[in-house]
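WARN retry 2 of 3 for item q-0093 after timeout on previous attempt; input resubmitted unchanged.
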Amino acid sequence: MTTIAVSKDVKRQIFEFGTMGENCSDVLLRLVKSARERQLHDLLMNEEGCVPIEDALNRARKKWRR
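OK item q-0093 returned
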């Protein structure tokens, strides 16, 4: 275990996300897990630089014509 220093306001905000019986570590762990899931979602759903499937199929058909 370790101790991290946070202001009373930050501690209050952390516990606002908590449920009955959770300690600060439980709340923070859940928040980190949620943040990781959100990052993965944002990465997977980012359409920047993507090509619509129909365009990709048309390009492939042109490139690989027999």
